[in-house]
Amino acid sequence: MKRYITAMAIIVTLLLPLPALAKGVILNFTDVDIATMVKFISDLTGKNFVMDERVKGKISVFSPAKLSNEEAFNVFTSVLELKGFTLIQSGKVYKIVPTASAKQSGTRLYADKEKIPVNESYIARVITLENITAQEAVTFLQPVVSKDGHVSAFGPANMLLVVDSSFNIQKIMAIIQVIDAEKRRDLPEILYLKSAGAENVAKVLQDWLGNKSAKQPGQPAAAALGTTIVPDSRLNAILVFGPEKDKEEIRQLVALVDVVPPISGGKVNVYYLENADATEVAKVLDGVVKGSSATPGQAAAPQASPFEGGKITITPDKATNSLVIMASPTDYQNLLQVIQKLDRKRRQVFVQASIVEVSLDRAKELGIQWGFFGGASSGDLATAGIFDPFGTLTPFFAAVGQLSQAGLLPEDMKLATAANFPFILKAMQGNGMLNILSSPTILTSDNKEAEIFVGENIPFLGTSVINGSTSQQSIERKDTGITLKITPQITDGDYIKLDVMQEISALKDTINVGVSSTDRSITKRSAKTSVIVKDQETVAIGGLISEIERESETRVPLLGDLPLLGYLFRSKTMKREKTNLILLLTPRVIKDGRDLDDVTQKQRVRFKEAAQKADPVDIPGYIGTRPAPGAAAPQDGGK
Questions:
Q1: Are the C-beta atoms of 145 and 168 separated by less than 8 Å?
Q2: What percent of the chain shows pLDDT beyond 70?
Q3: DSSP 357-417
Q4: How far is Cα 395 from Cα 214, in angstroms, rounded to an integer?
Q5: What are phi and psi of 373, to 5 degrees?
Q6: Residues 6 or more apart from 447 whose CB is under 8 A from it?
Q7: What is the pTM of this model?
Q8: On the CB side of 158, how many CA atoms lie within 13 Å of its CA?
C-alpha cells in the first residue's frame, strides 16, 4: 500500500506544469527502488543518467520543505553516496556507478580555479601549490581523502591531482588554503597525547591563543589566525599550524597539561547495588574503562572516549554488595549511567522437572505403541506425542486424550495442564508404564545456572602406593544419583531458552581389579542440550534407551527344594527389559511477587499432600497429623 501511495505521488508530481515545478518540489520517498528516484530526478532536472548494472537497492527520502531543482539534485547525490554509489559526469550524461570503481570510470576533470559542483558526485581536481611542495601536501592530506578517493603529486609543476567527491574536495581545498598560505610556510606539526584527551587539550590551547591575541591590541584581528589548533580524536593528537615560535610555546603548554591527574584530584564514591552482583559489575566496568583507553601513538576507535583520561579504580565490596569508585566527577557520572542500566531487577524462572524411566516392554503389554501418540514406531523417540519422526518438539499434553482412551488415566481427567501434570505421571506410574525417578523443582534467576543433586557419595578404590614393604590403598569418593543443571534465559514473546544437563548414575556389578581386589562400576546416562519452550508449557528431552537383564526363578513349593530332584520342579528365566529415560520440563517466568507467592503456595500444598500420605511417625516435626488419643497408629508400610 505504501509503495502504491509513493508511486501515485511521483505520478502526480510528474504531471505538474513546469511553473509549479520551478517553484519547488517536495521529496517524499519511502523504500523505493533507486531506479524510481533516478527516473524522477531525470524528469525533474532534464539530466541524462546511465545506471551501472551493480546499482541496486531501496532508498527513503523525506523533505518537508520545498526544494529547488538544483537542491533536489544535490539531495539525490547525497542519497547515492549513502548507498555506496556516486555520479560521474561525461558530457551531457551522468553515469551512476559504485563509489569503489569511480576512479576508473572516467571522472570529469576540473582545472585549477574552475568552479566545482556542490554535491556528492565524483570529480577530479587539479590544484597548484605556491608555498609548500606537492609531496608535503600529499603526506598531510592523505588521512583526509576518503576511502575510495585518491591524491597524487606532480613534482615538476608542484601540482596535486585529487579524485574524490565534490564535497570532500572542497574540504581539501580549504585545508590547502591554510597550509599553503604565505604566513604558514612552516610545516604543520602533530603532537600526540599520552594522558589527556585531544578535545580537552585543544580547548585549553585555543583559550590560550585567544587570551594571547587579546593582550596585543595593536595587532589586527587577522593576526589571531597566525596559529591554528585542530584536534584529532581518532589519533588522540593535536595538529598545529603556525610559525615555529608559537609551536614552541604550544609544545611547552601541551607538556604541562598532558599528564595523569593526581589521585588526590579524584573523588571516592560508594554505590550500593540493589539487584546486580558487585563483583560481576566491577568486571564489566573495568572492561569498559580499559577498552576506552587509547594506546599512545596508536589509532583508537573513531569515536572519542567518554572518560577524561585520569586514573579510575573500581573495587567491589562483597559484604555490602557495593562498588567503591575513585574517579573524577565527570568520569563518575559516565560510569553511573552504565551502573544504573546494569543494576536492574532480573526476572526469575521456576522450573518443574520430572525425570521418568519409561518401560517399553510394559507399554507393549498394555497394548500401547509409542507411534500411537503421534510419534515414530521405530527407533525415534515418540513419548506420548512429544517428538515426531523428524525430532520436532510438540506439546506433551496433546496426547492426554489418547492416554485416557487407552485406559491409562482416570475418567474425570480429560484435560492436561501444568497444574495436574504430576497427577498424569502418577496415573501412568500406577499402570506400571513408567517409574518417576525424581520430581525436583528449581527456582533461579535469568541467565543463572541452578543445580540439583539427589544421590549418594560412594567410596571407591583409588590409587595404590607402595612404601617399602607396605602398600597403602587410597579411597576416592564419587557421587552417584541424579544430577540436573538448568540455565534459563528469558527471550521475547514469553519464550524461555533452557540449557539443560542431566545425568543419572547408578552402581552396577562388582568387577575384578587386579589379582585379588574387586571394585564397583558405575553406569551413567546423560543428556546435554538447549531447547526453547513457551512459558508454562512442557517439553521432553531424552530417548536414552538402556537394556537391563533380570533373572527370575519359579519353583513348585516344597518339591522345588528337594535335593537332587529339586531341579525338576523349578526353572530359571532371564528377561531383558528396555527402559527409556526422559526428562520433562515445565518452566514458568516469575515476573513479580504475586507470581512467586502463587508458586510458593502451590508447592506448600503439594508438600502437605505428600506428607499426609506418608507415615506420620516419619515426619512428626513437619506436619501436625499425629494419631488422636486412643487411636491406633498405622501399621508399618501402611499408607
A1: yes
A2: 67
A3: EEEHHHHHHTT--GGGGTS-SSSS--STTSB-TT--B--GGGGHHHHHHTT-S-TT-----
A4: 81
A5: -95, 20
A6: 346, 487, 488, 489
A7: 0.43
A8: 8
Residues 6+ apart with CB under 8 A from 59: 29, 31, 32, 33, 34, 37, 79, 83
Residue 73 and residue 47 in contact, taking contact as beta carbons nearer than 8 Å: yes
Q: How far apart are CA 480 and CA 355, in angstroms?
A: 15
Cell numbers that stand for 320 in this block: 555490602
Separation CA 71–CA 493 (nearest Å): 46
Backbone conformation region of residue 468, classed left if phi is above 0, alpha if psi is from -120 to 50, else beta:
left
Grid cell, residue 472, equals 597403602
pLDDT band at 512; cut points 50, 70, 90: low
Per-position DSSP letters for 457-480, written without gaps between them: EEEEEEEEEEETTEEEEEEEEEEE
The residue ranking higher by pLDDT, 89 or 510, is 89
**Does 244 score more than 70 pLDDT?**
yes
| pLDDT higher than threshold 80 for residue 43 | yes
Q: Containing H/E element for 623?
A: none
Rounded distance, CA 241 to CA 342, Å? 45
Pairing of strands 313-317, 322-327: antiparallel
Task: Categorize the per-residue pLDDT at 146 as very low, low, confident or very high, splitting at 50, 70 and 90.
Answer: confident
Grid coordinates representing 125? 581536481
The pLDDT tens digits for 562-586 are: 787 777 777 777 777 777 777 888 8
Mean pLDDT of the chain: 72
* Residue 459 pLDDT: 79
The arithmetic mean of pLDDT across residues 452-456, rounded, is 83
Round the CA-based radius of gyration of the chain to a whole number and report it.
41
Burial of 123: CB neighbours in 10 Å, binned 0-12, 13-18, 19+: buried
Whether the pLDDT of residue 142 is over 50: the answer is yes
Please, is 440 exposed, middle or buried when counting C-beta atoms within 10 Å of its C-beta (0-12, 13-18, 19+)?
Answer: middle
> How far is it, in rounded angstroms, from Cα 74 to Cα 117?
9
Average pLDDT over residues 590-610: 83
Distance of CA 330 to the CA centre of its chain: 29
Cα three-residue angle 165-168-170, rounded to 5 degrees? 110
For residues 39 and 446, what is the distance between their CA atoms, to the nearest angstrom? Answer: 53
Query: Quick one: DSSP state of residue 605?
Result: H
Question: What cell numbers appear for 284 in the block?
Answer: 564489566
Question: What is the spatial distance between Cα 230 and Cα 305, in angstroms, rounded to a whole number?
Answer: 17
Asked whether 552 and 576 are in contact (CB, 8 A), the reply is: no
Q: Return the pLDDT at 272.
A: 92
Q: What percent of the chain stands above pLDDT 90?
A: 3
Strands annotated E in 242-374 = 267-272, 313-317, 322-327, 348-359
pLDDT surpasses 50 at 629? no
Q: What are the φ/ψ torsions at residue 177 (nearest 5 degrees)? A: -60, -30
Q: Please tell me the predicted confidence (pLDDT) of residue 322.
A: 92
- Identify any residues that bridge with 486 across adjacent strands, giving them in sequence order: 450, 500
Name residues whose C-beta falls within 8 Å of residue 249's C-beta, 6 or more positions apart in sequence: none
